């Protein structure tokens, strides 16, 4: 009798698992935003609101482990707002990835948000698709007033003895994530000629960057790499560190162009979930659009530019993150018969 009951319970459990798997909603594209100013509809938009309003993400899913509810439409586009900072991003993405309501195994992930930009490479409003995401928090730090005279800055790799030196001791394996280069190239080719809005305020601000030809350009679309840290750092000394740090961890072919405060946390969570087959890490894209520069213009101090207001309150960069990200999202959804099984790629 006990054996019979045990067998029945086993069958019942198997049926529940099967029904849960069958009930999971297949997701084609996950859009990851990082912050919102207030409400998710009807007020000044942050990174989340434009997706909800313009893509009619009217299916709302309560998300108690996140900061905002999840929003989805019937085409298979799901959006999340993680909250700012590495810890919020890691926790929110892990919570979504383990949510049994969604089948994310074939989903493409588009991380689309604003960020700081290196004046050596980009201008305000520029959209930058990353091939490398590097963590800027995992290091030793010495106050710049106490560093040896021959050091450029007081940031040292874990396991190293001085700045910009490869680790010879202990370190961690989540400092660098390389994205699928073919997919990144495809997204860039798809968006490189997409118009990115310029404004008088952006033009007036960038005109301060005399001697920096890339910073003086109207906004454009390019490929470049991003450093994430929960510290909102600023200035030419740290900008030098960021360029060195990118090369040290991602190789000489990498090029630091944007700053962010979440992407290394998001990538860590996604790679953990890939171990369970819940995420395909070859289907991840990271787009950062430049709302501000990471270093001041000539004649201005780092203290001034750290807190200088973003031109147009950063709205052009928010609009660009939506426009460029949505161009890719719609291409994936509209040709899902092909892209469900075959990841798009370009050289």
From TrEMBL:
InterPro entries in UniProt: Nucleoside_phosphorylase_sf (IPR035994), Pur_nuclsid_perm (IPR009486)
PANTHER family: PURINE NUCLEOSIDE PERMEASE C285.05-RELATED (PTHR38643)
Biological processes annotated in GO: nucleoside metabolic process; transmembrane transport
Alphabetic keyword roster: Signal
Signal peptide limits: 1-23
Molecular function GO labels: catalytic activity
KW Lyase (keyword) present: no
Family annotation (Pfam families): NUP
Protein name: Putative purine nucleoside permease
Natural source organism: Cellvibrio japonicus (strain Ueda107)
């Amino acid at each position: 009798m006990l054996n019979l009951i045990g067998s029945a319970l086993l069958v019942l459990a198997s049926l529940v698992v099967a029904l849960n798997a069958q009930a999971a909603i297949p997701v084609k594209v996950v859009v990851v935003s990082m912050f919102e100013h207030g409400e998710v509809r009807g007020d000044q938009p942050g990174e989340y609101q434009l997706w909800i309003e313009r893509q009619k993400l009217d299916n709302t899913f309560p998300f108690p482990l996140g900061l905002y509810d999840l929003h989805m439409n019937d085409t298979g586009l799901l959006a999340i707002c993680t909250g700012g900072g590495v810890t919020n991003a890691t926790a929110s993405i892990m919570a979504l990835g383990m949510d049994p309501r969604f089948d994310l195994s074939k989903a493409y992930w588009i991380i689309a948000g604003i960020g700081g930009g290196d004046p050596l490479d980009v201008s305000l409003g520029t959209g930058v698709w990353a091939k490398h995401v590097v963590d800027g928090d995992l290091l030793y730090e010495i106050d710049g007033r106490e560093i040896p005279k021959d050091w450029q800055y007081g940031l040292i790799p874990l396991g190293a003895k001085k700045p910009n030196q490869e680790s010879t001791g202990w370190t961690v394996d989540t400092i660098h994530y390389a994205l699928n280069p073919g997919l990144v190239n495809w997204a860039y080719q798809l968006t490189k000629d997409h118009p990115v809005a310029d404004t008088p305020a952006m033009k007036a601000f960038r005109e301060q960057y005399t001697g920096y030809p890339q910073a003086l350009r109207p906004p454009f679309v390019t490929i470049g790499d991003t450093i994430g840290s929960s510290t909102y750092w600023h200035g030419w000394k740290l900008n030098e560190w960021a360029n060195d740090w990118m090369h040290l961890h991602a190789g000489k072919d990498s090029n630091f162009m944007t700053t962010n405060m979440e992407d290394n946390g998001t990538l860590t969570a996604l790679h953990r979930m890939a171990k369970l087959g819940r995420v395909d890490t070859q289907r991840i894209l990271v787009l950062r659009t430049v709302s501000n520069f990471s270093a001041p213009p000539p004649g201005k101090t780092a203290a001034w530019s750290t807190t200088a207001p973003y031109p147009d309150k950063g709205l052009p960069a928010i609009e660009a993150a939506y426009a460029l990200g949505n161009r890719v999202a719609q291409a994936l959804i509209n040709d899902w018969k092909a892209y469900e099984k075959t990841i798009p790629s370009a050289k």
